[in-house]
Amino acid sequence: MKSFRKELWFDIPSRRAFINITPEIEQCLKESSIKEGLVLVNAMHITASVFINDDESGLHQDYERWLEKLAPHEPVSGYMHNRTGEDNGDAHLKRQVMGREVVVAVTDGALDFGPWEQIFYGEFDGRRKKRILVKIIGE
Amino acid sequence: MKSFRKELWFDIPSRRAFINITPEIEQCLKESSIKEGLVLVNAMHITASVFINDDESGLHQDYERWLEKLAPHEPVSGYMHNRTGEDNGDAHLKRQVMGREVVVAVTDGALDFGPWEQIFYGEFDGRRKKRILVKIIGE
Amino acid sequence: MKSFRKELWFDIPSRRAFINITPEIEQCLKESSIKEGLVLVNAMHITASVFINDDESGLHQDYERWLEKLAPHEPVSGYMHNRTGEDNGDAHLKRQVMGREVVVAVTDGALDFGPWEQIFYGEFDGRRKKRILVKIIGE
Fold first, then answer.
1. Using a CB-CB distance cutoff of 8 angstroms, which residues of chain A are in contact with residue B3?
2. Mind listing the pLDDT tens digit of every residue in chain A (139 residues)?
3. Closest to C62 (Cβ–Cβ): which among A43, A70, A81?
4. Strand pairing of A37-43 and C2-11?
5. Which chains are within 8 Å of A by 3+ CB pairs?
6. Chain C interface residues facing chain B, Cβ-Cβ under 8 Å?
7. Do C86 and C125 touch, CB atoms closer than 8 A?
8. Mind listing the pLDDT tens digit for each residue in C82-117?
9. Beta-sheet strands, E only, within B1-139
10. Distances from the Cα of B109 to the Cαs of A62, C16, C81, C132, in angstroms?
11. Element (H or E) spanning C37, and its range?
């Protein structure tokens, strides 16, 4: 069994954003030389997500609006978590809806994807350095 | 390490449905001859889910009603994504709540499940051919 | 490839709770002697979650309040599932928001975590014995 590990770093200038990281994950897979196995991609921070969906800007605006409705940033005082001095209570909730991680099959050395699947980093509390983990196991 | 891959196709006649696919996944596991490892089952489309819960029709009606409340299909114009000419903006949101994939342990050649765990395909934009991926790795 | 399997049992005295199980998962990893691979931790019951977030009591109160808003326990008659004689319809919904499972990378014999990541058991229908599965594969 072979394994591969890499961290990818982000420093998103806004509080929230969705970033397509599929090319970076494909590059990791190439570096790993793994042909059959599984890729795990996970946020290493608890106010961010990794998820798979469509690279369509209208959809990303829908996600933004919907997540703000489900778990609004304001009022900041509405979250017990923010009594710690933070203002990111909402980000911990949004991340649960969108998920921490994805597991993707590796077949013949490629991400085994359907026609529209793309991997995204979902940032819900940006404006600082944060990272994701890419772990690949297989042969 | 052994690996196994299979696609399962669906053509659901309605927009939304929940289909128990546990027997098909058990059949894949048998074909793979893998005794110890992990099974990944994921939707290959971004308006569908694979999830694990109870095979109880009342619960499925609860899911249907709840997801319609969280991300209603109508009004179709309420989603920016639908400006592309699609009408499935809601399906991309519902799929995030229910999840893209499950990872299940394989022990002694069987799905290592609790008493009520069953695997479901969740369709949120049907009436066309769509598929899921089953990838098994192990020994 | 090595594999390791263990069940962890809970008997939570309240209906709902969040329990930090990171030390128990680290202990499993130690027992497994696996240095590189993946850990799967999943609820074996369909009214409970395993998820990764922050060990901060204010945040856990935010989760509790938020999940009650998204899928309230009362009125019990509001769920079709409860016509089976159960009163846990809400728990099946809450579990979908928080997720069934996490997959964590193992690197150099440790859980490969960011600074605040901790693994939680999320109970939504307690007051009885329930369990999670820990499955580790690797080398």
1. 36-37, 138-139
2. 999 999 999 999 999 999 999 999 999 999 999 999 999 999 999 999 999 999 999 999 999 999 999 999 999 999 999 999 999 999 999 999 999 999 999 999 999 999 999 999 999 999 999 999 999 999 9
3. A81
4. unpaired
5. B, C
6. 1, 3, 5, 38, 40, 42-46, 70-71, 79-84, 89, 92-93, 95-97, 99-101, 103, 131, 133, 135, 137
7. no
8. 999 999 999 999 999 999 999 999 999 999 999 999
9. 2-11, 17-20, 37-43, 48-53, 101-107, 110-111, 118-123, 129-138
10. 43, 34, 32, 19
11. strand C37-43
Report the greatest alpha carbon distance in chain C. Answer: 51
Instruction: Count Cα neighbours of B7 within 13 Å in the Cβ-side half-sphere.
Output: 11
ipTM of the complex model: 0.97
DSSP state of B67: H
Q: State the first-to-last Cα distance of chain B, in angstroms, to the nearest integer.
A: 5
Mean pLDDT of C60-76: 98
CB-CB under 8 Å, C100 with B51:
yes
Residue pLDDT, tens place only, B45-69: 999 999 999 999 999 999 999 999 9
Across all residues in chain B, what is the average pLDDT? Answer: 98
Q: Torsion angle, CA of B103/B104/B107/B109, rounded to 10 degrees?
A: -100
Tokens for C63, please give them: 């989760």
Three-state secondary-structure class, residue C35: coil
Query: What distance in Å separates the CA atoms of residue B34 and residue C1, rounded to the nearest whole number?
Result: 12
Query: Vertex B128, ends B127 and B134: CA angle to 5°?
Result: 120
Is C101 in contact with B103 (CB distance < 8 Å)? Answer: yes
Q: Which residues of B touch A52 (CB under 8 A)?
A: 46, 100
Instruction: Select from B41, B55, B103, B124 the residue whose CB has the most chain C CBs within 10 Å, as the one to mutate to test that interface.
Output: B103
Residue C127: phi and psi, rounded to 5, are 70, 30
pLDDT of residue C27: 98
